[in-house]
Amino acid sequence: METRFFEIESEVLKDNPWNDSYKRRVATISVGNPQGAPIVLYLSGYFSTSLAQLNIDPLSETLRDKLHRLHREGKIGNLILLLPDTFTKLGGNQYLDSKAVGLYESHLIKEIIPLVKEHYSSINVGVMGKSSGGYGALHLGSKYNFKAVAAHSADAYFEYAYLPLFPKVIQTLRRAGNPREFVDMFWSSQDRKRKDLLDAMMIVGLSGFYSPEETLELPFELDTGKLREDVWKHWISLDPVRFLASRKENLSGKYLYIDVGTRDDFNLQYGNRIIHQMLSAWGISHAYEEFQAGHMNTSYRYDVSLAYLSRYLSVE
User: Fold this and answer.
1) Which pLDDT value is given to residue 74?
2) Cα(288)–Cα(294) distance, rounded to whole angstroms?
3) What does pTM read for this prediction?
Protein backbone atom coordinates (compact mmCIF):
# COMPACT_ATOMS: atom_id res chain seq x y z
CA MET A 1 0.00 0.00 0.00
CA GLU A 2 1.23 3.45 -0.87
CA THR A 3 -0.02 6.97 -0.23
CA ARG A 4 1.29 9.68 -2.55
CA PHE A 5 0.71 13.39 -2.79
CA PHE A 6 0.67 15.58 -5.87
CA GLU A 7 0.71 19.36 -6.00
CA ILE A 8 -1.26 20.92 -8.83
CA GLU A 9 -1.43 24.57 -9.83
CA SER A 10 -4.86 24.83 -11.37
CA GLU A 11 -5.39 27.07 -14.35
CA VAL A 12 -9.19 26.86 -14.18
CA LEU A 13 -9.34 27.84 -10.49
CA LYS A 14 -7.24 30.97 -10.90
CA ASP A 15 -9.21 34.16 -10.30
CA ASN A 16 -12.09 32.25 -8.66
CA PRO A 17 -14.62 34.61 -7.01
CA TRP A 18 -13.64 33.72 -3.42
CA ASN A 19 -9.87 33.82 -3.82
CA ASP A 20 -9.70 30.19 -2.76
CA SER A 21 -6.28 28.74 -3.40
CA TYR A 22 -5.69 27.54 -6.95
CA LYS A 23 -2.74 25.49 -5.71
CA ARG A 24 -4.27 22.21 -4.66
CA ARG A 25 -2.98 19.05 -3.02
CA VAL A 26 -4.15 15.70 -4.37
CA ALA A 27 -3.60 12.34 -2.66
CA THR A 28 -3.69 8.81 -3.99
CA ILE A 29 -3.93 5.60 -1.99
CA SER A 30 -3.00 2.48 -3.91
CA VAL A 31 -3.28 -1.20 -3.06
CA GLY A 32 -1.58 -3.98 -5.01
CA ASN A 33 0.31 -3.01 -8.15
CA PRO A 34 -0.65 0.58 -9.00
CA GLN A 35 0.72 0.66 -12.53
CA GLY A 36 -2.23 0.41 -14.87
CA ALA A 37 -4.64 -0.14 -11.95
CA PRO A 38 -8.17 1.31 -12.08
CA ILE A 39 -8.70 4.69 -10.45
CA VAL A 40 -11.64 5.62 -8.22
CA LEU A 41 -12.24 9.34 -7.73
CA TYR A 42 -13.63 9.90 -4.23
CA LEU A 43 -15.82 12.98 -3.67
CA SER A 44 -16.52 14.14 -0.13
CA GLY A 45 -19.75 15.39 1.37
CA TYR A 46 -20.41 19.02 2.25
CA PHE A 47 -18.32 20.58 5.05
CA SER A 48 -15.49 18.20 4.28
CA THR A 49 -12.72 17.48 1.83
CA SER A 50 -11.71 14.14 0.38
CA LEU A 51 -8.30 14.52 2.04
CA ALA A 52 -10.07 14.22 5.41
CA GLN A 53 -10.34 10.49 4.64
CA LEU A 54 -6.66 10.28 5.61
CA ASN A 55 -7.40 11.44 9.17
CA ILE A 56 -7.30 8.99 12.05
CA ASP A 57 -10.64 8.32 13.74
CA PRO A 58 -10.37 6.15 16.86
CA LEU A 59 -14.01 5.06 16.48
CA SER A 60 -13.90 3.93 12.87
CA GLU A 61 -11.68 2.68 10.10
CA THR A 62 -9.83 5.17 7.94
CA LEU A 63 -10.40 4.80 4.23
CA ARG A 64 -6.73 3.87 3.89
CA ASP A 65 -7.13 1.03 6.43
CA LYS A 66 -10.37 -0.04 4.77
CA LEU A 67 -8.67 -0.36 1.39
CA HIS A 68 -5.84 -2.37 2.92
CA ARG A 69 -8.28 -4.73 4.68
CA LEU A 70 -10.49 -5.20 1.61
CA HIS A 71 -7.44 -5.96 -0.52
CA ARG A 72 -6.07 -8.39 2.08
CA GLU A 73 -9.47 -10.14 2.20
CA GLY A 74 -9.50 -10.45 -1.58
CA LYS A 75 -12.59 -8.23 -1.96
CA ILE A 76 -10.83 -5.65 -4.11
CA GLY A 77 -7.97 -6.01 -6.57
CA ASN A 78 -5.31 -3.54 -7.62
CA LEU A 79 -6.86 -0.12 -7.10
CA ILE A 80 -5.99 3.56 -6.80
CA LEU A 81 -8.21 5.83 -4.73
CA LEU A 82 -7.94 9.46 -5.80
CA LEU A 83 -8.60 12.10 -3.14
CA PRO A 84 -8.83 15.70 -4.40
CA ASP A 85 -9.10 18.82 -2.26
CA THR A 86 -12.09 20.83 -3.47
CA PHE A 87 -12.96 22.68 -0.27
CA THR A 88 -14.19 26.27 -0.71
CA LYS A 89 -14.98 29.28 1.45
CA LEU A 90 -18.63 28.31 1.00
CA GLY A 91 -17.96 25.20 3.06
CA GLY A 92 -17.89 22.51 0.40
CA ASN A 93 -18.58 21.64 -3.20
CA GLN A 94 -21.25 20.26 -5.52
CA TYR A 95 -18.69 19.46 -8.25
CA LEU A 96 -20.19 21.75 -10.86
CA ASP A 97 -18.65 24.61 -12.82
CA SER A 98 -19.97 27.76 -11.18
CA LYS A 99 -19.32 31.40 -12.03
CA ALA A 100 -20.17 32.23 -8.41
CA VAL A 101 -17.76 29.73 -6.81
CA GLY A 102 -15.27 28.32 -9.31
CA LEU A 103 -14.79 25.80 -12.11
CA TYR A 104 -14.47 22.70 -9.96
CA GLU A 105 -16.00 20.30 -12.48
CA SER A 106 -13.37 21.34 -15.01
CA HIS A 107 -10.67 21.14 -12.35
CA LEU A 108 -11.49 17.48 -11.73
CA ILE A 109 -12.13 16.41 -15.32
CA LYS A 110 -9.49 18.41 -17.19
CA GLU A 111 -6.69 18.67 -14.65
CA ILE A 112 -6.69 16.13 -11.83
CA ILE A 113 -7.88 12.95 -13.55
CA PRO A 114 -5.58 13.30 -16.61
CA LEU A 115 -2.61 13.95 -14.30
CA VAL A 116 -3.21 10.83 -12.21
CA LYS A 117 -4.14 8.63 -15.19
CA GLU A 118 -0.89 9.55 -16.90
CA HIS A 119 1.20 9.00 -13.78
CA TYR A 120 -0.15 5.49 -13.22
CA SER A 121 -0.77 4.58 -16.89
CA SER A 122 -4.38 3.86 -15.94
CA ILE A 123 -7.27 3.40 -18.34
CA ASN A 124 -10.44 2.69 -16.35
CA VAL A 125 -11.78 5.33 -13.97
CA GLY A 126 -14.74 5.23 -11.60
CA VAL A 127 -16.25 7.81 -9.29
CA MET A 128 -17.83 7.49 -5.86
CA GLY A 129 -19.09 9.80 -3.14
CA LYS A 130 -21.61 10.36 -0.40
CA SER A 131 -24.21 13.11 0.05
CA SER A 132 -22.88 16.09 -1.96
CA GLY A 133 -20.20 13.68 -3.13
CA GLY A 134 -22.92 11.25 -4.17
CA TYR A 135 -24.53 14.07 -6.13
CA GLY A 136 -21.17 14.76 -7.75
CA ALA A 137 -20.76 11.08 -8.59
CA LEU A 138 -24.16 10.99 -10.32
CA HIS A 139 -23.51 14.26 -12.14
CA LEU A 140 -19.97 13.58 -13.33
CA GLY A 141 -20.54 9.85 -13.76
CA SER A 142 -23.54 10.37 -16.05
CA LYS A 143 -21.89 13.16 -18.06
CA TYR A 144 -18.35 11.92 -18.63
CA ASN A 145 -16.53 8.73 -19.51
CA PHE A 146 -16.52 7.02 -16.12
CA LYS A 147 -16.90 3.27 -16.39
CA ALA A 148 -18.44 2.76 -12.95
CA VAL A 149 -20.30 5.00 -10.49
CA ALA A 150 -21.16 4.58 -6.81
CA ALA A 151 -23.47 7.11 -5.16
CA HIS A 152 -24.21 6.93 -1.44
CA SER A 153 -27.14 8.99 -0.11
CA ALA A 154 -26.89 11.38 -3.05
CA ASP A 155 -28.58 14.77 -2.94
CA ALA A 156 -31.72 14.27 -5.01
CA TYR A 157 -35.33 15.41 -5.21
CA PHE A 158 -34.61 18.91 -4.00
CA GLU A 159 -38.21 19.51 -2.92
CA TYR A 160 -37.65 17.13 -0.01
CA ALA A 161 -33.89 17.53 0.46
CA TYR A 162 -33.54 21.32 0.51
CA LEU A 163 -36.94 23.04 0.74
CA PRO A 164 -37.48 22.05 4.41
CA LEU A 165 -34.27 23.90 5.31
CA PHE A 166 -35.23 27.22 3.71
CA PRO A 167 -37.50 28.58 6.47
CA LYS A 168 -35.02 27.40 9.12
CA VAL A 169 -32.15 29.51 7.78
CA ILE A 170 -33.95 32.76 6.89
CA GLN A 171 -33.57 34.40 10.32
CA THR A 172 -29.88 33.51 10.50
CA LEU A 173 -29.23 34.93 7.05
CA ARG A 174 -31.27 38.07 7.74
CA ARG A 175 -29.07 38.88 10.74
CA ALA A 176 -26.05 38.99 8.42
CA GLY A 177 -27.76 41.18 5.84
CA ASN A 178 -26.84 39.31 2.67
CA PRO A 179 -25.20 35.99 1.71
CA ARG A 180 -21.68 37.37 1.21
CA GLU A 181 -21.75 39.11 4.59
CA PHE A 182 -23.01 35.87 6.12
CA VAL A 183 -19.98 34.01 4.76
CA ASP A 184 -17.69 36.55 6.43
CA MET A 185 -19.68 36.22 9.66
CA PHE A 186 -19.48 32.42 9.50
CA TRP A 187 -15.69 32.35 9.23
CA SER A 188 -15.28 34.94 11.98
CA SER A 189 -17.39 32.85 14.38
CA GLN A 190 -15.64 30.75 16.99
CA ASP A 191 -18.59 28.33 17.20
CA ARG A 192 -19.14 27.86 13.47
CA LYS A 193 -20.22 24.24 13.98
CA ARG A 194 -23.54 25.44 15.42
CA LYS A 195 -26.37 23.82 13.48
CA ASP A 196 -28.04 27.11 12.57
CA LEU A 197 -24.80 28.41 11.07
CA LEU A 198 -24.05 25.16 9.24
CA ASP A 199 -27.55 24.97 7.78
CA ALA A 200 -27.38 28.57 6.60
CA MET A 201 -23.91 28.12 5.12
CA MET A 202 -25.02 25.03 3.23
CA ILE A 203 -27.93 26.91 1.63
CA VAL A 204 -25.62 29.79 0.71
CA GLY A 205 -23.12 27.32 -0.73
CA LEU A 206 -25.78 25.48 -2.72
CA SER A 207 -26.94 28.84 -4.05
CA GLY A 208 -23.44 29.41 -5.37
CA PHE A 209 -23.56 26.17 -7.35
CA TYR A 210 -27.23 25.94 -8.34
CA SER A 211 -28.36 29.55 -8.89
CA PRO A 212 -28.08 31.07 -12.35
CA GLU A 213 -26.13 34.26 -11.61
CA GLU A 214 -22.48 35.04 -10.86
CA THR A 215 -23.54 36.60 -7.57
CA LEU A 216 -25.01 34.49 -4.78
CA GLU A 217 -28.71 34.38 -5.59
CA LEU A 218 -30.78 32.80 -2.83
CA PRO A 219 -33.83 30.83 -4.01
CA PHE A 220 -36.10 32.78 -1.64
CA GLU A 221 -36.67 36.36 -0.56
CA LEU A 222 -35.07 37.17 2.77
CA ASP A 223 -37.79 39.57 3.92
CA THR A 224 -40.84 37.37 3.24
CA GLY A 225 -39.40 33.90 2.61
CA LYS A 226 -41.26 33.71 -0.69
CA LEU A 227 -39.69 31.34 -3.22
CA ARG A 228 -38.04 33.07 -6.15
CA GLU A 229 -39.54 30.90 -8.85
CA ASP A 230 -36.94 31.76 -11.52
CA VAL A 231 -34.03 30.84 -9.24
CA TRP A 232 -35.74 27.75 -7.83
CA LYS A 233 -36.48 26.57 -11.37
CA HIS A 234 -32.76 26.69 -12.10
CA TRP A 235 -32.03 24.73 -8.92
CA ILE A 236 -34.35 21.87 -9.78
CA SER A 237 -33.00 21.71 -13.35
CA LEU A 238 -29.79 20.50 -11.68
CA ASP A 239 -31.59 17.83 -9.63
CA PRO A 240 -30.59 14.27 -10.62
CA VAL A 241 -34.25 13.26 -10.87
CA ARG A 242 -34.45 15.82 -13.69
CA PHE A 243 -31.09 15.84 -15.47
CA LEU A 244 -30.59 12.07 -15.65
CA ALA A 245 -33.43 11.81 -18.17
CA SER A 246 -31.34 13.66 -20.76
CA ARG A 247 -28.36 11.36 -20.11
CA LYS A 248 -30.03 7.97 -20.55
CA GLU A 249 -27.88 7.01 -23.52
CA ASN A 250 -24.69 7.94 -21.70
CA LEU A 251 -25.72 5.84 -18.67
CA SER A 252 -26.23 2.73 -20.76
CA GLY A 253 -23.34 0.34 -20.35
CA LYS A 254 -21.99 1.92 -17.18
CA TYR A 255 -21.88 0.05 -13.89
CA LEU A 256 -24.04 1.91 -11.37
CA TYR A 257 -24.33 1.38 -7.63
CA ILE A 258 -26.73 3.46 -5.50
CA ASP A 259 -27.63 3.14 -1.83
CA VAL A 260 -29.34 5.22 0.85
CA GLY A 261 -30.49 4.91 4.45
CA THR A 262 -34.20 4.42 5.07
CA ARG A 263 -34.15 7.16 7.76
CA ASP A 264 -32.02 9.72 5.98
CA ASP A 265 -31.91 13.02 7.89
CA PHE A 266 -32.37 15.01 4.67
CA ASN A 267 -35.13 12.80 3.21
CA LEU A 268 -32.77 11.60 0.49
CA GLN A 269 -34.28 8.11 0.45
CA TYR A 270 -37.14 9.47 -1.64
CA GLY A 271 -35.02 11.03 -4.36
CA ASN A 272 -32.84 7.93 -4.56
CA ARG A 273 -35.92 5.70 -4.83
CA ILE A 274 -37.14 7.88 -7.69
CA ILE A 275 -33.79 7.49 -9.46
CA HIS A 276 -33.93 3.72 -8.95
CA GLN A 277 -37.43 3.67 -10.40
CA MET A 278 -36.35 5.79 -13.38
CA LEU A 279 -33.33 3.63 -14.15
CA SER A 280 -35.47 0.49 -13.94
CA ALA A 281 -38.08 1.98 -16.28
CA TRP A 282 -35.36 2.85 -18.79
CA GLY A 283 -33.95 -0.68 -18.65
CA ILE A 284 -30.59 0.56 -17.33
CA SER A 285 -28.87 -2.10 -15.27
CA HIS A 286 -27.83 -0.95 -11.80
CA ALA A 287 -27.52 -2.08 -8.18
CA TYR A 288 -29.74 -0.36 -5.62
CA GLU A 289 -29.86 -0.96 -1.88
CA GLU A 290 -31.57 0.63 1.12
CA PHE A 291 -30.19 0.05 4.59
CA GLN A 292 -31.48 0.74 8.10
CA ALA A 293 -29.74 3.98 9.07
CA GLY A 294 -29.79 7.75 8.75
CA HIS A 295 -27.45 10.05 6.87
CA MET A 296 -24.45 10.17 9.18
CA ASN A 297 -21.73 7.65 10.04
CA THR A 298 -22.40 5.24 7.20
CA SER A 299 -18.90 4.87 5.75
CA TYR A 300 -19.13 1.14 6.49
CA ARG A 301 -21.20 1.02 3.30
CA TYR A 302 -17.99 1.72 1.35
CA ASP A 303 -17.11 -1.95 1.85
CA VAL A 304 -19.92 -2.73 -0.60
CA SER A 305 -19.30 0.02 -3.13
CA LEU A 306 -15.52 -0.36 -3.27
CA ALA A 307 -15.88 -4.10 -3.94
CA TYR A 308 -18.46 -3.29 -6.64
CA LEU A 309 -16.26 -0.66 -8.28
CA SER A 310 -13.15 -2.80 -8.14
CA ARG A 311 -14.95 -5.75 -9.72
CA TYR A 312 -16.39 -3.84 -12.65
CA LEU A 313 -13.48 -1.48 -13.26
CA SER A 314 -11.33 -4.56 -13.74
CA VAL A 315 -13.56 -5.84 -16.54
CA GLU A 316 -11.98 -5.27 -19.96
Assistant:
1) 97
2) 17
3) 0.96
* Residue 279 CB coordination number (10 Å): 18
Give the per-residue pLDDT at 213: 87
Asked if 139 and 202 sit in the same domain, the reply is no
Both 233 and 249 in a single domain? no
- Considering the domain architecture, whether residues 225 and 188 belong to the same structural domain is answered as yes
Q: Name the domain count of the chain.
A: 2
Query: 45-64 burial by CB neighbour count: b if 16+ within 10 A, else e?
Result: bbbbbbbbbeeeeeeeebbb
Average pLDDT over residues 137-166: 98
pLDDT band at 235 (very low <50, low <70, confident <90, very high): very high
Rounded to the nearest 10 degrees, how much is the dihedral formed by the CA atoms of 44, 168, 160, 127? Answer: -10
129 has which bridge partners?
43, 151
Domain range for 230 is 160-237
Looking at the structure, tell me whether residues 90 and 192 fall in a common domain: no
- SS3 (DSSP) at 294: coil
